[in-house]
Design brief:
Elements lengths: L1 H11 E2 L4 E2 L4 E7 L7 E3 L1 E4 L11 E10 L19 H24 L4 E4 L5 H9 L4 E2 L4 H11 L3 E2 L11 E11 L4 E9 L5 E7 L2 H23 L3 E3 L3 H14 L6 H12 L1 H9 L4 H15 L16 H4 L2 E3 H19 L12
Parallel strand pairs: 3-12, 6-7, 6-9, 7-8
Antiparallel strand pairs: 1-2, 4-12, 5-11, 6-10, 10-11, 13-14
Helix pairs in contact: 1-5, 2-3, 6-7, 6-9, 8-9
Length: about 350
């Protein structure tokens, strides 16, 4: 899972600007299968199916037309009413509609597209014509998914059929419809895109709660990897950074004249809450563990010493390979300090009981 998150971030990262566009990483989940079936797709996964059961379910070297115009005859903008009182008039109307549909399908075919992705739906007649012309289609695709698809395939979103040209088509190596489990849930997987700047992590799990929990965990891991792209500076974990900071603040307090030094010492004590919590959660004696590590840091002048939560036999977090991003650690301390400052600004609390 961790390797998958790193690969996903590196696939979309702009290393020159040292930034990651999180919108290009999509987390898609489907209940069923095992957690081990989770995989990274270098492309897009659409929670849709091919619109007609007799259309091709796998398209190689796909040329994709991305449409936001519906497959339906144009409607007048004013209120209208059509009275059909004879079979000839009905036949005339049906032929006119079929002509519209045929023109739309022909325009798609002439552009060189072999897959239609449409934001809107289309009725059975249009679907039948597309199937006869061997033109697979996917309908009711959301706007966000269309944008991601356009980025990944290098295509353009086309608002009108007459604007559809070969230059505006997206391209992908394979597009295939896959089914899952006994419920026969279907999804469309678009892989080997022309521009692989969009990736999807496709999550499987035994139930919805597990899928949602994995999504949340993967999002956190992706954010950590993104922070390392933005800044590759790290601090070592296990409370070692907090203990080092606490010692530095205590030392600075000795040089501060007046009452302000008590604020320095209180801040230093507050920083020690993290290693104390780590020791408690690991079943160790919190005070004993903290004082032992603190004294060793001072004696050995080694800022990498922290709480040995995994009981590896060494307190050196560098040897244990336990670290955090500098950005994340700095933000934690900053937010905690801001919360305390906000609380200290409250000079009075009005109790509801005072008004009863």
């Amino acid at each position: 899972m961790a390797e998958m998150c790193v690969k996903a971030v590196l696939a979309v990262a702009d290393l020159e600007r040292k930034d990651v566009n999180m919108d290009l990483i999509k987390l898609e989940g489907k209940v069923g299968g095992k957690l081990e079936d989770t995989r990274l797709v270098h492309g897009i996964v659409l929670d849709k199916d091919i619109s007609h059961p007799q259309m091709d379910k796998e398209i190689k070297d796909a040329k994709i037309a991305i449409l936001t115009c519906p497959f339906e005859p144009p409607k007048p903008k004013t209120k209208h009413k059509v009275d059909i009182d004879t079979a000839e008039k009905y036949e005339q109307l049906r032929e006119c509609e079929q002509k519209y549909f045929s023109e739309m399908v022909d325009q798609c075919k002439e552009s060189g597209a072999n897959l239609i992705v449409c934001q809107w739906g289309f009725d059975d007649e249009a679907n039948h014509l597309l199937m006869n012309h061997k033109l697979p289609a996917i309908r009711w695709v959301g706007g966000v998914e269309l944008e991601l698809l356009a980025i990944a395939t290098g295509g353009r979103i086309v608002p009108r059929f007459k604007e559809l040209t070969a230059a505006k088509l997206g391209s992908a190596g394979t597009v295939k419809e896959v089914s899952f489990g006994t419920t026969k849930d279907k999804m469309v997987v678009i892989e080997d895109c022309a521009n692989s700047k969009a990736v999807t992590i496709f999550i499987r799990g035994g139930n919805k709660m597990m899928v949602d929990e994995v999504k949340r965990s993967l999002h956190d891991a992706i954010c950590v990897a993104r922070n390392l792209i933005r800044s590759n500076r790290i601090v070592y974990g296990g409370g070692s950074a907090e203990i080092t900071c606490s010692l530095a603040v205590e030392k600075a307090a000795n040089e501060v004249p007046g009452i302000e030094q008590y604020a320095f010492r209180a801040f230093a004590d507050a920083l020690e809450a993290v290693p104390i919590a780590l020791a408690e959660n690991s079943g160790l004696d919190p005070i004993e563990s903290l004082t032992a590590v603190k004294s060793r840091q001072v004696q050995e002048e080694n800022p990498y010493l922290g709480i040995d939560c995994n009981e590896e036999g060494t307190n050196d977090m560098k040897k244990q390979n336990v670290f955090e991003t500098m950005i994340g650690k700095r933000q934690q301390v900053l937010l905690a300090t801001q919360v305390v400052k906000m609380i200290l600004k409250i000079d009075d609390v009005i109790s509801p009981a005072a008004y009863q």
